[in-house]
Amino acid sequence: MLYPTRLDPVVWSPDFLDRYFRLEFTYLVTPYFYPVGTTVLGQAQETDPWEDHLAGLLSELARRIPEGKGILPVLEGFQQDGYIVGEEFPLRQLSVYRRFWPGLSSAAIDAWKFAQPQPPLVELADLPTLQRGVCVLFADLLTGYARCHWGREIPWR
To answer: What's the alpha-carbon Rg for the chain, to the nearest Å?
Structure first.
């Protein structure tokens, strides 16, 4: 079982983790917080110190997770209009998680896909720079080297 754990309630509901975080019902904890854009913690550009906010949220969660419990961070793989994210963004997110779980070797990307265009979110499929960053992230996870063999896009058939 997966336990998706939204992290921002830690800030606005101090007893959130005590009331809702139940490790006994899961094998894999999947924390998520999308740090760049308009959030409940305010607005953040990729150039802002959002890593400190994410680390603060993760520290509360990490205190409650016993050694050996699986972690699968769900990283932001989209951008809001006006909040550009670049190629380094996925690895920067993972590096914050690795402060608490140094051996972390997995991640998921929340990439959003819309049938109709839905401003203000821009999906991963429309962001070649972020796509390269995701490729680099997974190359790093698979091989330990942040290198990606970026190829041409294959059109949908």
So the answer is: 16
How far apart are the C-alpha atoms of 130 and 5, rounded to whole Å? 24
Q: How far is CA 141 from CA 36, 46, 47, 78, 110, in A?
A: 22, 22, 24, 20, 17
Write the pLDDT tens digit of every residue in 112-153: 666 666 667 888 888 999 999 999 999 888 876 666 766 655
What torsion do the CA atoms of 68, 138, 117, 157 make, to the nearest 10 degrees?
-120
Report the 10 Å Cβ neighbour count for 146: 15
Burial of 77 (0-12, 13-18, 19+ CB in 10 A): buried
What residues does each domain of the chain span? Answer: 2-143
| Candidate from 11-25, 29-43, 77-91 with smallest mean pLDDT | 11-25
Ramachandran angles phi, psi of 80, nearest 5°: -90, 150
3-class DSSP state of 73: coil
pLDDT reported for residue 60: 92
What backbone phi and psi angles, to 5 degrees, belong to 59?
A: -60, -40
pTM across the whole model: 0.87
Residue with tokens 């896909």: 113
